[in-house]
Amino acid sequence: MTLLETYLPVFQFREFHQVSVEAAPADLLGAVNLPGVLDDPWVKRFIKLRETPGRLLDALGRRSLMRDKAAFGLADFTRLGRDSDREVAFGLVGKFWQFDYGLVAIADARAFERFSTIGIPKLVLNFSVDAADRGCTWLRTETRVYCNDRKSFVRFLPYWLLIRPVSGLMRIRLLRRIADAAAADRAQSREKNPRC
Fold first, then answer.
1. 7-37: string of b/e by CB count within 10 Å (b at 16+)?
2. Is 135 part of a structural domain of the chain?
3. Distance of alpha carbon 92 from alpha carbon 79, whole angstroms
4. From edge to edge, which strands make up the β-sheet containing 87-93?
5. Which domain holds residue 93?
6. Residue 65, class by beta-carbon neighbours within 10 Å (0-12 exposed, 13-18 middle, 19+ buried)?
7. Measured distance CA(65)–CA(188) in Å, rounded
8. CA distances in angstroms from 41 to 20, 38, 48, 73, 76, listed in the order given
9. How many Cβ atoms from other residues are within 10 Å of residue 79's Cβ?
10. Most buried of 1, 31, 42, 49, CB within 10 angstroms?
11. Which residues are 94's β-sheet partners?
12. Distance between CA atoms of 21 and 10, rounded to whole angstroms?
């Protein structure tokens, strides 16, 4: 069973993307955690745009909980684990449609699994790998969201429809950045440890 299935087997929203890459599965999953790989400047600009209304409200003296809050990023996720050289998964809990994402701090994978407060959706983002033809590897990402009551579903749906196209572009860019980082890391290792 995958980490995705373990932590979010039931969901209403799903996004999936994949690319074929000339790299070893271990290198690709290792690249997910390399510093800066998931810090795409284009993604940062989109997040800044997404957060602008909340920050504007704060600047105008209306409380939106965005004041002094760092921009949203992978640091907001809880690492759920890594399944050898097959998959790595991250979890997030919050009212994502709110200006400040309505995030709930989750200590670890076990706390994520047990979390069940009504009205607060759960999200799992994973990166997985699988063998492809001619020595290539499929690098995939899937995002699932589960809303545990009708009210949160109704509130999340328009948000999902609004962000989904840009979210898809973000995921595709992240896959390319992971592939590029794995190739660069591999090349650097060969320079340090030549075979001959």
1. bbeebebebebbbebebebebbbbbbeeeeb
2. yes
3. 9
4. 13-21, 137-146, 122-131, 87-93, 78-83
5. 3-188
6. middle
7. 43
8. 23, 9, 10, 12, 17
9. 14
10. 31
11. 103
12. 30
Summarize pLDDT for 60-93 with one digit per residue, the tens.
777 666 666 777 888 899 999 999 889 999 999 9
Instruction: For residue 140, tell me if it sits in a domain.
Output: yes
Q: For residue 156, is it within any domain? A: yes
Residue 108 in this model has a pLDDT that exceeds 90: yes
Cα–Cα distance between 144 and 191 in angstroms, integer? 39
Q: How confident is the model at residue 196 (pLDDT cuts 50, 70, 90)?
A: very low
CA dihedral 38, 39, 44, 47 (to 10 degrees): 40
Q: Which class for 194: exposed (0-12), middle (13-18), buried (19 or more C-beta within 10 A)?
A: exposed
CA angle 147, 78, 158 (to 5 degrees): 30
Task: Tally the domains of the chain.
Answer: 1
User: What CATH number does residue 150 fall under?
Assistant: 3.30.530
User: What token pair was written down for 129?
Assistant: 């790998």
Among residues 80, 54, 41, the alpha carbon closest in space to that of 170 is found at: 41
CB 123, CB 93: distance < 8 Å: yes
- Tell me the helices (H) and strands (E) count for the chain, helix number first: 5, 5
**Which tokens belong to 105?**
């701090």
Residue 194 lies in a domain: no
